[in-house]
């Protein structure tokens, strides 16, 4: 048995930091580290996703509605639902992607 901790040694930078933590037979578990004011521009995912705030606070916007998600809160989206994130404080987020989704897609979002 291997254990994983999303809160051990998170990496923060000038841009959003995206790291794959583990891959299962059905999902990819991603750690996203955001600083206050950092943004992941509006985008969609090709499959369903879950977003859970493990530390800090982010504003999540989707279809014109915005909500502040705090530590322990999470949301789920079906495929192709537009959404964006903004760091309200220094934050660590767990993103669950479907197995067929590409980590590169998420990394490319924070490069632009």
TrEMBL record:
List, alphabetically, the Pfam families matched. Answer: Cupin_2
Signal peptide positions are none
| Domain named Cupin type-2: residues | 33-94
Identify the SUPFAM superfamilies for this entry: RmlC-like cupins
Q: Say which domain of life the source belongs to.
A: Bacteria
Q: What is this protein called?
A: Cupin domain-containing protein
From which source organism is this entry?
Answer: Sulfurimonas diazotrophicus
Q: What is the lineage of its organism?
A: Bacteria, Pseudomonadati, Campylobacterota, Epsilonproteobacteria, Campylobacterales
